[in-house]
Design goal:
Elements (H helix, E strand, L loop, with lengths): L2 E13 L2 E7 L13 E5 L8 E5 L9 E7 L5 H8 L6 E5 L14 E7 L3 H13 L7 E7 L8 H8 L4 E7 L10 E2 L3 H7 L6 E7 L1 H14 L6 E5 L2
Parallel strand pairs: 7-8, 7-11, 8-9, 9-10, 11-12
Antiparallel strand pairs: 1-2, 1-6, 2-5, 3-4, 3-6
Bound molecules: flavin-adenine dinucleotide.
The site of flavin-adenine dinucleotide has 20 residues, from strand 4, strand 5 and helix 1.
């Protein structure tokens, strides 16, 4: 595997526990990857597993800077390091891109992206890439599950995307109690069950923590969707 010395060139505090890290690889003119892939970061920890994987959150853009969307695990080794030790200008050892969780274009099908929290990262890379390169597609749905309003990410971008006409954003909050929230509440599984009850041609791309991904896969299989149409990436 190829490794590079990356340099953190920007950090955006997206929510109290989620940050966007922009990492440059100065030795490359272009950091080449496919939308949906992930990288490894190697940490200076004296433990057996000293790396963690993170999805590339931006669409490939020909530059040598990429973006990561990372949530702090209060008990986590790597994320505590990233949130407490890393700043703009810090160096991070990053790998070449990896993984086969990538978009398979099919002009005759809708695309449904399903995620919770930072599981959005590789899906965002895919839909921004589809839009940027005019990849033939039918309608795109993004079902995004999280707990509270203050956990929502890329809000301005979501508003712009929904103006396009070919992109429907459906956030679903599981624990929000405020009346200010007028969107959907509960768990995201109900949303795709309703939307695709008639089984139209759809390709699914699912990303997030194990339980959500397993439940979504099983539910879609039970609904009669083929294994081939259900693409997924698990974070644990
Ligand atoms: C392909 C892929 C892509 C990913 N992309 C992203 C991404 O884009 N963004 C993102 O935020 N995350 C992503 N992840 C998850 C990421 O790799 C890390 O797992 C995550 O950041 C947590 O790392 P950590 O070192 O902070 O936590 P860890 O130190 O690994 O701990 C994780 C949890 O396990 C518990 N734990 C640790 N050791 C033990 C033990 N011995 N016994 C019991 N419990 C224990 C800790 O309490 C903690 O709650 C991805 C994972 C994969 C596989």
């Amino acid at each position: 595997m190829l490794w590079y010395q990356g340099k953190v060139v920007d950090i955006i505090k997206e929510t109290p526990s989620i940050r966007r890290f922009y990492i440059q690889v100065p030795e490359l003119e272009t950091y080449t990857f496919q939308a949906g892939q992930h990288i490894k970061i190697e940490f200076p920890f004296n433990v057996k597993k000293n790396y963690r994987q993170y999805s590339l959150a931006n669409a490939p853009n020909g530059s040598n800077v990429f973006e990561l969307l990372i949530v702090l695990d209060p008990n986590g080794l790597a994320t505590n390091y990233l949130f407490n030790e890393v700043d703009i200008g810090s160096s991070l050892k990053v790998s070449e891109p990896r993984g086969s969780f990538v978009h398979k274009p099919d002009a005759d099908k809708d695309i449904c992206f399903i995620c919770t929290g930072v599981g959005l990262a590789p899906l965002r890379s895919m839909y921004l890439d589809i839009i940027k390169n005019n990849v033939p597609h039918r309608h795109m749905y993004l079902i995004f599950g999280t707990r509270y309003m203050h956990d929502m990410v890329y809000l301005e971008e979501m508003e712009q995307l929904t103006q396009r006409g070919d992109f429907t954003f459906i956030p679903v909050l599981s624990r929000e109690t405020s009346d200010e929230w007028v969107g959907r509440r509960g768990y995201l599984h109900q949303v795709y069950k309703e939307l695709f009850a008639d089984k139209p041609p759809v390709d699914f791309y699912i990303c997030g923590w194990r339980d959500m991904v397993s439940e979504a896969r099983q539910t879609l299989l039970d609904m009669g969707f083929s294994r081939k149409s259900i693409n997924f990436e698990r974070y644990n």
